[in-house]
C-alpha cells in the first residue's frame, strides 16, 4: 500500500486507462473523491464506464468528465441530480444503465463477494426488467441482476492509517466501502492520515488488504461548494 501527497493525485490516476470500468463513491457530491476526480479530468482517457450513484452535478464532480466527453456509459440510480446526463443520452453520446438504489448497492457488494449475481423482486414487471432473466421462487417472480465489478475504484474516506485501513464519516460512507471490495485497484482519498495502530480495530470499516493507494484530499465539499483545502 502506498501513501501519496495531494500533489501526487495525477500520479495515482494514471492507473485509469481508456476503456476502463471505474467505480466512484459518493451520493451527490457527499463522500465523493473530489481530488481524484479533478485529477481524472486532466488525464488523457476516453470511453470510460462509470459506476456511481449519480454523475455528479452539472459542471461539478463527475459532471466535468461528462462535459469533457470522457464517459461512454454510466451505471447508477440517480441521474437526475445532473440534468446534463439526459441531454447527452438523448443525443446518443452516453449509454445509461439505470438500477434501483438498493439493487445498485447489492450488485456492487456481490461483485466484491465473488457472487455472480442475485435474484430480486425489485423492478419486476417494469421496463428495468426487460431483457433480464426472471425466475419464480416460492410463487413469487424475481429478476436476475448481475454483479458489478470494476478495474479501478476511486473512493472517499475520513481517516486512513499508514497501512491503509479506512474509517468513514457518517453518510459520506455511502457506497465507498462496497466499492473498495469490488475493484482490481483501489485508490482512497482521505481527510487525515494517521500512523499505523492509531485507529481502533472496532472503528475500521475497510481493512488495508482492499486498498492499494491512499492520498490526502486537496478538494473538499463545504456549504459554499467545492473548495481547496487550506
TrEMBL record:
Keywords: Transferase. The keyword Transferase applies. This is CoA transferase subunit A. InterPro entries: 3-oxoacid_CoA-transf_A, CoA_trans_fam_I, NagB/RpiA_transferase-like. PANTHER family: KETOACID-COENZYME A TRANSFERASE (PTHR13707), SUCCINYL-COA:3-KETOACID COENZYME A TRANSFERASE SUBUNIT B-RELATED (PTHR13707:SF57). Gene3D superfamilies: Glutaconate Coenzyme A-transferase. It comes from the Bacteria. The keyword Transferase applies. GO terms for molecular function: transferase activity.
Amino acid at each position: 500500500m502506498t501513501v501519496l501527497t495531494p500533489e501526487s493525485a495525477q500520479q495515482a490516476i494514471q492507473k485509469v486507462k481508456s476503456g476502463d470500468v471505474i467505480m466512484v463513491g459518493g451520493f451527490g457530491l457527499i463522500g465523493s473523491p473530489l481530488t481524484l476526480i479533478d485529477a481524472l479530468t486532466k488525464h488523457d482517457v476516453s470511453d470510460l464506464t462509470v459506476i456511481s450513484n449519480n454523475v455528479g452535478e452539472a459542471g461539478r464532480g463527475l459532471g466535468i468528465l461528462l462535459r469533457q466527453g470522457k464517459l461512454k456509459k454510466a451505471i447508477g440510480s440517480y441521474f437526475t441530480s445532473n440534468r446534463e446526463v439526459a441531454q447527452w443520452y438523448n443525443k446518443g453520446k452516453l449509454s445509461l444503465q439505470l438500477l434501483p438504489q438498493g439493487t445498485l448497492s447489492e450488485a456492487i457488494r456481490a461483485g466484491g463477494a465473488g457472487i455472480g449475481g442475485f435474484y430480486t423482486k425489485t423492478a419486476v414487471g417494469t421496463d428495468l426488467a426487460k431483457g433480464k432473466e426472471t425466475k419464480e421462487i416460492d410463487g413469487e417472480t424475481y429478476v436476475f441482476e448481475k454483479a458489478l465489478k470494476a478495474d479501478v475504484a476511486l473512493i472517499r474516506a475520513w481517516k486512513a492509517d499508514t497501512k491503509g485501513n479506512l474509517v468513514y464519516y457518517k453518510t459520506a460512507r455511502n457506497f465507498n466501502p462496497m466499492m473498495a471490495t469490488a475493484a482490481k485497484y483501489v485508490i482512497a482519498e482521505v481527510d487525515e492520515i494517521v500512523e499505523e495502530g492509531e485507529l481502533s480495530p472496532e472503528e475500521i470499516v475497510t481493512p488495508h488488504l482492499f486498498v492499494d493507494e491512499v492520498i490526502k484530499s486537496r478538494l473538499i465539499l463545504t456549504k459554499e461548494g467545492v473548495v481547496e483545502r487550506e
